[in-house]
Amino acid sequence: MKQFIAVFIGVVLVLLCAAPVLAAGFSLSPAEVEFDVPADGSTTVEFLVYDFTGDFDISLEDIPLRVEPEKVSVTASAEGTPVELTFYGDESLSSQVFKGKIVFLASSGGNIAFGVKVIATVNHIVAGQPLPETTPPEATPQAPDTTPSTPPGESQAPQESRGLPIGGIIGIAAGTAIVIALIVVLARRRRY
């Protein structure tokens, strides 16, 4: 009987510890952005966060500009919680196109749970200086397009980024471990 009580207390503790992890999941929209940033100014871009309550650490990958805020707290909302990021130009840089990512790292309870990278094309524009010309797509050989085509006159729905549901995987693993522990305890108990 003492073993059963010990296992029961262990099960309760595991479930209490796993509950916040199970809630850690989110989606972010849009999955890809393109915008202009003046070298002597700033541009604000809005994202919608779904199904998450906690903090985000925000950084840029392969984009040598500054973004604010670097940390945002959000509360889950059925309509999505808006997050506005301001990107600041850099007068020491020339007009150019930066292709990189905006990184959203979700944390809950002080631990990074998972993250999403939004593909970003940032046109950094210096007054009086044109953006560098890019080679037209027809002149560059490319691999065949494997995305489904959209009929003429119809627009394609925007895609959403989805984080890996690590919380669900951890919850399933914890539940499986609990069931196995109970089976072992009950099997040993019946032998004696």
Features:
24% helix; Immunoglobulin-like; 5-stranded mixed beta sheet; 2 helices; alpha+beta; 192 residues; 5-stranded antiparallel beta sheet
H-E order: HEEEEEEEEEEH
CATH class of the domain at 27-135: Mainly Beta
- Low-pLDDT segments: 18-24, 143-164
CATH architecture of the domain at 27-135: Sandwich
SS class: alpha+beta
What sort of overall outline do the alpha carbons produce when their principal axes are compared? elongated
Q: Assign the CATH superfamily of the domain at 27-135.
A: Immunoglobulins
So how many helices?
Answer: 2
How far apart, in Å, are the first and last alpha carbons? 12 Å
Main beta sheet: 5 strands, antiparallel
Give the mean pLDDT.
74
Identify the strand order in the major beta sheet. Answer: 5-7-3-1-10
Proportion of beta-strand residues: 35-45%
Please give the share of residues in helix.
Answer: 10-25%
Based on CA atoms alone, the radius of gyration comes out at: 24 Å
For this structure, the CATH topology of the domain at 27-135 is Immunoglobulin-like
**Count the strands?**
10
Task: Tell me about this structure.
This protein is of the alpha+beta class. A hairpin with a 2-residue loop joins strand 8 and strand 9. 24% of the residues lie in helices and 38% in strands. A five-stranded antiparallel beta sheet has the order 5-7-3-1-10, with no helix packed on it. Strands 2-9-8-4-6 form a five-stranded mixed beta sheet, with no helix packed on it. Helix 1 packs antiparallel against helix 2. It has two helices and ten strands, in the order H-E-E-E-E-E-E-E-E-E-E-H. The protein has a domain of 109 residues: Immunoglobulins (Immunoglobulin-like, Sandwich), CATH 2.60.40.10. About 15% of the residues have low confidence. It is elongated and about 85 Å long.
